[in-house]
Amino acid sequence: MFRSLKALTALGLGLALAWSANPSAAATNSVVIYNAVSTKLIQAFVEEFQKQNPGVKAEVISGGSGELLTRIKAERSNPRGDVLVGPDADVFDADLSLFDSYDSKQKSGFDKAAIGPDGKYYGFSTNFQAFIVNTKAMPLDKAPKSWADLAKPEFKGKILMANPAQSGSAYSQMHQILMLYGWDVMAKIIQNATFVPSSKLAFQNVAKGEIAVGLTSEFNILVSKLDGNPVEAVYPSDGTALIIDANGIIKGGPNLENARKFIDFISSAQAHKILVDLDKRRSARKDVTPPPGLADAQSIKTFAYDTVGAAKNRNENLEKFDKLFSAK
């Protein structure tokens, strides 16, 4: 675990520097994918994309949403990636100038709310944030029921969160808490929680029983449960925001035509069915049904997520988080 947000940010920059030797900035018959989703999912997408586009080589560079955004910003004057896959939409909204507009052939499959301004991104999955509870480590009736509960003294040392500088989902979790309760409650949660540098660890360590409660996307809880782990999902009683994650084209990337082909593919109903089958996510498309095992969306209390505010206040919020985290 890292003691400071600055240390985590430095790690992301180090990864960006290490990666810079990988893809060439010269145009080739390839597409360079900056990937924030699971390895098995991106592999399935790449295999199917290459079947449909023989001769196009897909190069995948994976990392956390924060790491990938840092890299894209660092490469602004000489982009090396072509597409960004899978972060929360507010990662795109943080700086839309980094992304290219595109009128995708799959546009009609989405509601307007799932398409970014000027076609800068297209929805991938709809994403409820929830609590994953290891029922062997904590009985479900003793688990926190709301975001506000996470600040209670009895949960000190029993909550696991990813660092919001490295994880788009973790940042959205923090922003939801700030929207509902402000920094007074968030500061208490920071004192209670253990932070890890990866969003995967925030649910995997709970599934292993290393800590009782974690904050994660609902599909991670379903997958963990299907894998035989003693976990259950708790949707915050004070509401969880309906957030989409998305895919978009990096502006100035070396392989624009192949980037457009990949966005058309990954936005298709076929690709979204792969998403549902492999990762157990709710598709952002209108015509793809959610996976069995997730709660009925109508039963979950939700509220409107301020995507613009999340993006606009990102740096200020992360600086405030770092100060509170470093003072633990």
What does this 3D model show about the protein?
By secondary structure, the chain is α/β, with parallel strands linked by helices. The chain has 2 domains: about 5-125 and about 245-290, D-Maltodextrin-Binding Protein, domain 2 (3-Layer(aba) Sandwich), CATH 3.40.190; about 130-240 and about 300-325, D-Maltodextrin-Binding Protein, domain 2 (3-Layer(aba) Sandwich). The protein is built from 12 helices and 14 strands. It has helices spanning about 5-20, 40-50, 65-75, 90-95, 170-180, 185-190, 200-205, 220-225, 255-265, 270-280, 305-310, 315-325, and strands at about 30-35, 55-60, 85-90, 100, 120-125, 130-135, 160, 195, 215, 230-235, 240, 245-250, 280-285, 300-305. Strands 1, 2, 3, 4, 5, 12 and 13 form a 7-stranded mixed sheet that branches. It has a 5-stranded mixed sheet with strand order 8-7-9-6-10. Strand 1, helix 2 (about 40-50) and strand 2 (about 55-60) form a beta-alpha-beta unit. It is globular, with a radius of gyration of 19 Å. The two termini are about 15 Å apart.
Regions with little confidence, pLDDT below 50 for 5+ residues: 1-25
Q: What is the rounded Rg?
A: 19 Å
Biggest sheet descriptor = 7 strands, mixed
Q: Shape, please?
A: globular
Query: How far do the termini sit from each other?
Result: 14 Å
Assign a percent range to the helix content: 25-40%
Q: State the name of the first-level CATH class of the largest domain.
A: Alpha Beta
Q: What proportion strand?
A: 15-25%
Query: What is the overall number of helices?
Result: 12
